Amino acid sequence: MSFVNAAVDSAIAIAEKRKGKLGAGIYSGRPNVVLERGFYALKSSTWMVVASGFVEPVFYLLAFGYGIGQFITGTTDGNGSPITYAQFIAPALLATSAMNGAIYDSTWNVFFKMHFGKVYNGMLSTSMGTLDVALGEIGWALLRGLAYAIGFMAVVTTMGLIPSVWGLLAIPAAVLVAFGFASVGMGVTSYLKNWQQMQWIQFVMLPMFLFSGTFYPLTIYPVFVQWFIQAMPLWQAIELIRGLTLGILNWAMLGHALYFVAMIIGGLYFTTRRLTALFLR
Questions:
Q1: Selection from 5-9, 40-44, 214-218 with the highest mean pLDDT
Q2: What is the pLDDT at residue 9?
Q3: What are the domain boundaries of the chain?
Q4: Backbone angles phi, psi at 66, to 5 degrees
Q5: pTM
Q6: In whole angstroms, how far apart are CA 123 and each of 34, 43, 203, 235?
């Protein structure tokens, strides 16, 4: 009982400390606790499930970049300079790797915790608020996306597929991409009620991966189709990271970065409101 009493006293002390401060009802300054839980849970995870998000884009790179790529000529960067087909698709697959890592944890894992594990019910019965939970879960998804991005970047760099020194910035760019996808992914998942509805995520992700300029330039599409694709987040991510890895810097890259800043802010806002509506009624 002493352990329980100590935990209760600690929760009360944290709540008293936050009392009267802005956002006290939804934030206690403890998202790190959610991250700690993620690390403990990782120890019991199947390593093949975790590794699959990394090896998938590597397989695509080998199959398309070095398989089909040997039959493709005339590939150029945004300035018209010739590059190999593998150099063209490598940054797109890096963006996809960051997206996959973030989306997996912020959707399927969150859905299980929300509807089956009842993890958030327990978290929110303590001094923690909904913003703590949102930041913690999104932060954990971001770390997974970062890990995938670093691993893939290490592979493509050793292959000589990053011709520009600006490619070093592709890692923080991938973190920004992962943050944006994780924020929106958790918010969307909070509205889904069964496994059938969760399949909608894959229904959206796969076409976005295939048609966002991953394997061929956007110019092959009619103009009205290009406008639709340019509105999708993966295209924004690919353009940002491709520009960095190929050393093509322009003001449009700032627009791509701001796109993900807006995703992060909007995702955090709606995720926090949704969790509050679900668990603090």
A1: 214-218
A2: 45
A3: 26-279
A4: -110, -15
A5: 0.84
A6: 9, 20, 31, 36
Give residue-wise pLDDT tens across range 184-239: 998 899 888 888 888 888 888 989 999 998 998 888 899 999 999 999 999 999 99
